[in-house]
Amino acid sequence: MSISNEQLDEMQSRCDEATEGPWVWHDGNSWRRLSVDDGHDDGGVLCPCNHPHDGHPDVKCEKNDQIFISQARTDLPACISEIRRLRKKIDAYKSMEKERWKSASKAFGIKLEKDANA
């Protein structure tokens, strides 16, 4: 799978618009909450609460953070896949270059530095 420039721009935009990180979970003495790792545990990213109109349980989370969290499940695997794909290409290129240098040095009777030590 290849990630298009448009997809990368969308992912970057979600990152830029989300609350700055790193984020850390807190779960002591009350509901679990997700906060910026700044020494406070206020649930500034994601915090349970009671809905103000009917008292039912709810979650306080800014819209940009909601989008970032929901898209992370697809963004991260796509990025990992793209990194692996590119690493394979880089490894193949390195191997090809190594073989080209070996062939050229052999053709011109030049010993490569690694060959000279053998």
Please provide a written account of the structure.
The protein is α+β, with helices and mostly antiparallel strands. It has one domain (5-106). Helices cover 53% and strands 14% of the residues. It has 3 helices and 4 strands. The strands form 2 sheets. Strands 1-2 form a two-stranded antiparallel sheet. A two-stranded antiparallel sheet has the order 3-4. Strand 1 and strand 2 form a beta hairpin. Helix 1 packs across helix 2 (63-108). The protein is elongated, with a radius of gyration of 25 Å.
Quick tags:
about 120 residues; alpha+beta; two-stranded antiparallel sheet; two-stranded antiparallel ribbon; 4 strands
| Binned strand content | 5-15%
Q: Total helix count?
A: 3
In helices, the fraction of residues equals 40-55%
How many domains comprise the coordinates?
1
Round the Cα radius of gyration to an integer and report it. Answer: 25 Å
Strand order across the largest sheet: 1-2
Mean pLDDT: 86
Order of helices and strands: HEEEEHH
Low-confidence stretches: none
Query: Span between N and C termini?
Result: 41 Å
